[in-house]
Amino acid sequence: MLSEAVDSNELLQESKIAYQTLLDNSFDAIIAIDSEGMITIWNHRAESMFGWNTEEVIGKPLTQTIIPSTFHEAHTEGLKRFIATKESRVLNQRLELTALHRNGYEIPIEISICASTFRGRPTFTAIIKDITENKNALKEMRLKKEEFKVLHEVAQSLQDSETMEGMLHNAMEAISQSKGLHVENKAGVFLVDEDKNTLRLASILGKFPKGFLENQNEIPFYNIPYGRCYSSGEILINNYCQFKPHRLGPFGDLTNYGTYVIPLKSRMKVVGVLFLYTPEPPPGYEGSTEILQSIGSLMGNAIQHRKFERKIHQQNKKLNRLNALKNKFLGIASHDLRNPLYAIMSYSDVLADGSLGEMNDQQRAILQKIAKSGNHMCNLLENLLDVSRIESGQFSLKKSPQDINTIVKDQVDKYQLAAKEKNIDLHFKSDISPTLTVDQCSMIQVMDNFIGNAIKFSPNNTKICVRTETSNSHFRFLVKDEGPGISEEDQKLAFCEFQTLGSKPTGGEKSTGLGLAISKKLIQLHGGKVGIISQIGEGSTFYFDLPVQKEATPDT
Predict the structure, then answer these.
(1) Do 251 and 219 contact (CB within 8 A), yes or no?
(2) Rounded to two decimals, what is the model's pTM?
(3) CATH code of the domain covering residue 440
(4) 529 and 462 together in one domain
(5) Among 106, 269, 389, 495, which is 20 to 30 Å from 25 by CA?
(6) Residue 58 — very low, low, confident or very high, per pLDDT cuts 50/70/90?
């Protein structure tokens, strides 16, 4: 019997040790109270969670430790109710409450309470989990969600608005509706005027306090809260500013208001300032200030983009006016110059045919030079007129179905004499002849230019091949010569107006510098494109492509 008693005591002692070990190593606070509300168990986790040592709290009322004063009465009444009726509203469930730390601040907790009986009296054990991190994480998640929402809405408003003022107004509305920023429906955007070193009021949301700006729409840099103006004229505003209620110079009597001030930046350059008013002193924005800086960047970039758009639009209008003036001048000048030039050419012809008397060899040589120069001038004037008509939209194509190979052959035949003078072998190799709907005169003009240039820039005793190719989608006209070739730099300029390339005519011929530019415009009017294939020392191939329209097949 004695040994059995010893064994029972040992088991009891081991059980107490295991129980205490379990309590001390628990990740949760474990607290027990008796029916009087006195603390009977307080484990190590409870010590670290609430700041009380076990020796300090055992036998002490729970209301004097972790229960906030607002819940004292409810706690006491709950104990009495359970002892009298065995009914409870809090037992055997998980509750989220707040508990008091020894230093006076409250901790969000999750608590589970169960009741048991010890020596005939009820006892209550609570398992308590500190959920501060969980609460903070949920709060941060909600805050981030609100931030992303307002950023999306601000970005959408900046994109959808047509005018600068409308864009800024819509962005401020989106910001004012954000729950996270605690902003009242009052805001203003000021844009930087670098020429005047001032901020200019661009858009207002809501009704501002009395005396706001005092009827002024511009604020000097030196009078901006948290703003400074360096000798360079640069404006500096802290990335995120708060104002507590007080009078802010030109911003009126803000006694009952707080203010956020956010610089609107584009690539680190301040392009404006956003003022947001709060119905009370700024709450020291609970979330990250990154949201305010992100809003500032979004709006700053949008403002700068709109400014660039407006500047480009104004420049384009100016360029269009200048281009129209140029075309008008070219048209007038070409028309006015043609009449006296034709008169000179006519009088030269009269002198050359001998009807006014015979001329000596020197006089004939001079007349030939006059005629040659006159022809070059006539070509230049015709080209100028073509450029003027095309760019002003007055050039109309007279399209009709044409056998394109027939047109090519005619132009090759026309240039045989010019090629023979330089002992150039000019030949034509055709593909299947397509029927294209084109302006015949334009095609002749382009082909003449390509073939004429090939002869003009080819050395004597070489070959020029004119070729046509047809595929399912396009027709190609090519002129390949054995000239000096064209560099990559010159190829980029070849179809531009008034360009003089590195290659020179081999027979002293003249060039207006407009032929290829006009050819490109004519082909583009037909929906086609021009191009060059060339390498220095290996000749050049000039070509143009025209789309081939497929004939509709009858329904079967």
Answers:
(1) no
(2) 0.46
(3) 3.30.565.10
(4) yes
(5) 106
(6) very high
